[in-house]
Amino acid sequence: MILYGSNTSPYVRRLRMYCAIHELSYEYKTLNIFDANERKVLVEHNPARKIPFLVCGEQVINDSNVIARYLQDKFSLPHLNWDQENLLTTINACNDSLIEILLGQRSELDTHADVLFFNLQRERITETLSYLDKQCTTDVFLNCEYLQISLYCLLDWIQFRSLADLSGFNSLLSHLEKWHVHASAKETDPRS
Fold first, then answer.
1. Which residues pair with 2 in a beta bridge?
2. What topology is assigned to 2-75 in CATH?
3. CA 166/CA 133 separation, integer angstroms
4. If residue 5 lies in a helix (H) or strand (E), which one and from where to where?
5. What is the domain partition of the chain in residue ranges?
6. 3-state secondary structure 6-46
7. Per-residue pLDDT tens for 48-59?
8. From CA 41, how far away is CA 33, in angstroms rounded?
9. Is 0.85 surpassed by the pTM of this model?
10. Within 10 A of 132 (CB to CB), how many other CB atoms are there?
């Protein structure tokens, strides 16, 4: 198995941490998707032109959620139930909106402007963080290691990129602190 991604992607990082915790053997190849030559590898394997993707023999799996399900099937690991899937969707929605903000900043757009697109992203970020702050202490959340890892990767990426203020989200900050000392978190830190 070869996992392609970037060291700074929260979606890639969650898979790397998940594999490390379960001692799953795989090869990891970094891709700079903005480099013309490396982008060719991305385009060849993923028509959506997104990372991560996993190559296992002839099988190519795109999207972190689908890769996680593939690993859960292949290695008989626990699957998410519907409530957990919904929480993962919320984590991903927040991640996606933050990525849109980051791409806007890198495109030299005024991401603080009072325009529909950025207003919707900021609203989604605020509301999903508030929701996740309440949900990350529930049994549904705490009984799912993949959710815990995914939320940690989101929160640490927010701090790494300075994209949102997490003060006031005490449960999220506690979750971040709890996972920050984990060996797999240290091994995959995007700051390294």
1. 27, 55
2. Glutaredoxin (3.40.30)
3. 10
4. strand 2-5
5. 2-75, 82-182
6. CCCCHHHHHHHHHHHHCCCCCEEEECCCCCHHHHHHHHHHC
7. 899 999 999 999
8. 9
9. yes
10. 22
